[in-house]
Structure formats: structure tokens, C-alpha cells
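wait is this the right file?? whatever heres the structure
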């Protein structure tokens, strides 16, 4: 009994001492030893209100009132603050003189990320000792190996968690500043040890979009460098999910993003679309090396066709230079145009294209100035709704009683053209259009401002040529080899095109025929095969055909 009582008293004493330890042991006196290490690692001033030893729910320490001071170039407020950081250690290793961290918990962190009017982030100098905030956007997308990533790699802990976090992003580089906030931030990182592969869970709500975001998966194994051999993550943006795979090696990174289906109605951004569309088999593969970003593969299925692109981009400048190649196969052009814009003219058919471009910047003024490119476009088995090219041409000749198909549509079997882009103008060359009643050739320009300036030569079928020629004296004499060619001029804009005939070109054909007949008559006189009386009769017939009198 005495032994039991002794053990009980001993346990009570130990428990009392343990409960009193947080009040007896003052850890604040050690701030001067470890705070400079933290400040050096972050390249930021750090303040700590209080540090206390904790016994429950686990042995460790609690740091209250943590503030990471902002870079002076961005203001005087805090860059980050936390109500507390709880660090728990394992008891058994501690009894043998070895410290093993079991968990680090961050309570209610508040972080403010700022991009100034020059496009520079306040995080540009985080972890980069002795580096002032740059005047232009940073060209180093991968953080310094002396920064937070190295701290994470060297940290040995079973769990790192965040509860009740909030991250605010303010972009002052745009004409109209924007602000986004990550609310109700949850974060859990497990197995943070060198040589191990941590698992990650992150969940938050993006405001003002009210968009739930979740990220789960693994990355690693952790090394003393920033190299990551394998990244395997699942990203959920509202109702849309993506798989993220890749790796990093020093300043180089390779990331692939895939999704089976993307409904644009569920995306947290405004796209230039009149109605939502469904994108299938989406794949985006990028490679980064310093400031150079390479688009290795962008491909997806849309409107029954496949779109693929490759290219490159130099990050950092306000108007980054880029280059790329685009290939389109089997695209249903009608639904595509309907989804993008409502215009008086609509083209249907199956489209294919190959295009190479280069430029600088993505704003319309930059694209108008710097975008250059060349390529080829072809559309099969379609229709131009909103205009009947034959009707426009024939009406100008004031020919009545001729049927030219559907009143406000032009059906075709093929439209194809070479194109070149420069200084805000698309130049169409070697254009060919095949239809049942005509074949069209020509070219011209279409401006980024929708201005039209085109010349299209409509070579009518033999049957339609005879109908038009039978009702128009000028057209009758312009018939060559049984077919009539009408030089159609198209001007105005894409929204309001105008049509006219190149009468000089048309009468030029008449002059050619008169000249040809005159040469034939003179040749006949010289050879003696034509008599003056016959020539007189042919001249009367020629004038009668020309003037219908």
C-alpha cells in the first residue's frame, strides 16, 4: 500500500510540475538566438509577441502574434501574420535527447500578395538576401535555393497544417486594379522528411468568384535542393477537375495539365464567347527554363475537330515576345462562329488550318503592331449564310429572271486560301472557292478593325453564263470559252459588307474580244479569206451584240 501511495504521490508531483512548466520556463529569452535565423531565411523582419512551452495536446511550444514585415518598397503593413504557430515534438525521442517534430500548426494566417503598377510582386525578394525589389517584373520564376523551398526540404516533420487562413492578392498593374481573396484556407502537408514524398491537401474558396478550389496529391521526394522528381496532383476548380504531373530540376520545370472535359460555363474567368462550349481531351504541357517558357503541347477537341498548338514565350516583360504554331483539323465552323460572335455573315463547313505566328504582348494594340504570321486555311462542304455572291453580282448587271439558288446563302464545296498577317491586316492570297454555279478566285485584305478590301473573280458555269449573256449585251461579249467571269469588289466591313463590279475589268474583257475579232477580220482580208462585204456584215452583228440595236 505504501508503494502504491508513493507512486501516486510521485505521479501527482510530476503532473503538477508538468502543468507548471509552461509558467515556469520562459522561452522568450531565446528569441535573440533563433529569430535572426528566421529573418535571414525569409529576408524579412519578423516580430514575435510571446513564446510558451505547451504540454497538451502534445509537448512543444506555441509562438503567438507572429508578424512578417512587408518589403519597404511595397508599404509598411505586414506581409504575413499569424495568431499562433504550434510546434509539437515526439516525447520518446526527446527522452533520449533527440528532438523530432511531430506537427507544425499555423492558426489563422493572413498573407497579402501585392503586384505594383510596374508588375512587380512583393514576394520577389522573399528569401533572397541583399536583393532589392526590382523595378520591372522578376525574370526568375523559380525561387532562390536559399529561400522557403530549401527550408521545407530541410524541415523534418510529420504534419504541417493551416487552419482558418486568408490570402489576399492585389494587382495594381492593370488600368482597373483587381483583388482576389482565398478564404477559409485549409492546408495539410504530411511526411515532410528528406528522401520522402509528402502528401498535400489544400482547400479554399476564391472570392469574389465564390469558387471552391481543392488541390490533392503528392510531390517529391524532398531533397536539399529545389529539385522535385515527380509531381502528381489533382486540381478541382468548382466542377472542373485537372490532373497535374511534372518535375523540376533547378531553374527548369516541366508541367503537364490534363482534363477529360471542360465546360466553359464552370470556369472562373470571362471568355470572349456568346455561349458556353464544351472542351474535351484537354492537354497543356509546358517547360520552363529561367525566363523562357515553352509550350510543348496544347491540344483539345472542340466542335467536332482537333486543335493543336506549340510555341514559346519569354516571361518578365510587360509585352512578352512569343512565337507559335497552330493546327486545326475537322472543326465544324458554323457552331464555332456562333459561339464566338453574332454577325450578319456566318460560314458553315468543316475547317482545317495551319498557321505560324510571332509577336509581342497580348493586348490588342500590341498584337496590331507586332503580330506577324502566315498559313493556309481550307473549308469543305459549307455555306455562307447572309449573302448570295451570284445574286449580288447579277443584280449589279441589272439582269432579271435568273435563278441563282437560295436568296441569302452561297453554298460551296471548297474554300481555301493562303494568308499572311502583318500590322493588323490579314492578307488573303491565292483564294479559291468552288461552287455548283461558279468558281471564284482572288484575294484581298481583312483588317483587325473588320475592314474589307477584296477582289473576287466569279467564273460562272456554262449554263449560267449563257443565261446572263442572253440578258446583258456587255456580259455577252465578255464570255470567253463559253463562260463568263465577273470581277466582284467587296468592301465595307465584316459586319456590313458592300458589293460592286469592277466595270473596268469587265469592259476590258469586251475590248479584248473586239480586238480579237478585228484582228481576225484584218487577217482574213490580207489572206483573201474574208471579203469586204462579209466584214461589213460581221461589223454590224458585232455592234448589234454590243448595243442591242
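ok assuming it is, sequence goes like this
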Amino acid at each position: 500500500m505504501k508503494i502504491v501511495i508513493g507512486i501516486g504521490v510521485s505521479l501527482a508531483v510530476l503532473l503538477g510540475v508538468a502543468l507548471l512548466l509552461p509558467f515556469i520556463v520562459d522561452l522568450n529569452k531565446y528569441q535573440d538566438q533563433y529569430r535572426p535565423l528566421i529573418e535571414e531565411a525569409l529576408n524579412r523582419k519578423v516580430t514575435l509577441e510571446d513564446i510558451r512551452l505547451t504540454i497538451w495536446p502534445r509537448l512543444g511550444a506555441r509562438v503567438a502574434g507572429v508578424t512578417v514585415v512587408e518589403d519597404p518598397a511595397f508599404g509598411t503593413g505586414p506581409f504575413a501574420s499569424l495568431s499562433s504557430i504550434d510546434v509539437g515534438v515526439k516525447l520518446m525521442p526527446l527522452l533520449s535527447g533527440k528532438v523530432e517534430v511531430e506537427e507544425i500548426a499555423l492558426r489563422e494566417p493572413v498573407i497579402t500578395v501585392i503586384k505594383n503598377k510596374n508588375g512587380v510582386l512583393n514576394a520577389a525578394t522573399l528569401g533572397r538576401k541583399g536583393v532589392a525589389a526590382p523595378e520591372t517584373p522578376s525574370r526568375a520564376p523559380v525561387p532562390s535555393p536559399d529561400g522557403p523551398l530549401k527550408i521545407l526540404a530541410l524541415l523534418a516533420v510529420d504534419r504541417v497544417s493551416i487552419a482558418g487562413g486568408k490570402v489576399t492578392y492585389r494587382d495594381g498593374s492593370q488600368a482597373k486594379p483587381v483583388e482576389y481573396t482565398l478564404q477559409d484556407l485549409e492546408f495539410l502537408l504530411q511526411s515532410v522528411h528528406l528522401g520522402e514524398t509528402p502528401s498535400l491537401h489544400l482547400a479554399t474558396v476564391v472570392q469574389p468568384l465564390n469558387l471552391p478550389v481543392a488541390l490533392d496529391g503528392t510531390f517529391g521526394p524532398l531533397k536539399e535542393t529545389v529539385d522535385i522528381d515527380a509531381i502528381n496532383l489533382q486540381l478541382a476548380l468548382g466542377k472542373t477537375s485537372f490532373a497535374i504531373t511534372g518535375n523540376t530540376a533547378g531553374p527548369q520545370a516541366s508541367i503537364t495539365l490534363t482534363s477529360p472535359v471542360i465546360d466553359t460555363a464552370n470556369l472562373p474567368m470571362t471568355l470572349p464567347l456568346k455561349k458556353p462550349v464544351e472542351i474535351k481531351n484537354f492537354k497543356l504541357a509546358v517547360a520552363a527554363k529561367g525566363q523562357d517558357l515553352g509550350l510543348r503541347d496544347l491540344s483539345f477537341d472542340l466542335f467536332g475537330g482537333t486543335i493543336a498548338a506549340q510555341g514559346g514565350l519569354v516571361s518578365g516583360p510587360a509585352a512578352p515576345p512569343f512565337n507559335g504554331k497552330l493546327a486545326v483539323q475537322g472543326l465544324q465552323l458554323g457552331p464555332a462562329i456562333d459561339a464566338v460572335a453574332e454577325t450578319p455573315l456566318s460560314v458553315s463547313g468543316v475547317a482545317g488550318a495551319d498557321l505560324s505566328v510571332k509577336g509581342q504582348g497580348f493586348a490588342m494594340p500590341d498584337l496590331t503592331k507586332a503580330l506577324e504570321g502566315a498559313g493556309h486555311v481550307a473549308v469543305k462542304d459549307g455555306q455562307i449564310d447572309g449573302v448570295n455572291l451570284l445574286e449580288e453580282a447579277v443584280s449589279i448587271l441589272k439582269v432579271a429572271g435568273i435563278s441563282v439558288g437560295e436568296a441569302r446563302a452561297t453554298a460551296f464545296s471548297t474554300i481555301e486560301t493562303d494568308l499572311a498577317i502583318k500590322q493588323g491586316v490579314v492578307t488573303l492570297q491565292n483564294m479559291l472557292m468552288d461552287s455548283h454555279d461558279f468558281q471564284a478566285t482572288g484575294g484581298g485584305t481583312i483588317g483587325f478593325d473588320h475592314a474589307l478590301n477584296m477582289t473576287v473573280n466569279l467564273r460562272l458555269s456554262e449554263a449560267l453564263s449563257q443565261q446572263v449573256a442572253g440578258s446583258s449585251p456587255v456580259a455577252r461579249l465578255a464570255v470567253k470559252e463559253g463562260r463568263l467571269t465577273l470581277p466582284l469588289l467587296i468592301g465595307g466591313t465584316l459586319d456590313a459588307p458592300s458589293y460592286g463590279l469592277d466595270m473596268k475589268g469587265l469592259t476590258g474583257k469586251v475590248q479584248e474580244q473586239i480586238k480579237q475579232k478585228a484582228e481576225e477580220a484584218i487577217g482574213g482580208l490580207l489572206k483573201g479569206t474574208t471579203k469586204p462585204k462579209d466584214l461589213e456584215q460581221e461589223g454590224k452583228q458585232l455592234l448589234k451584240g454590243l448595243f442591242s440595236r
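The longest helix spans residues 503-527. so i think its the right one actually
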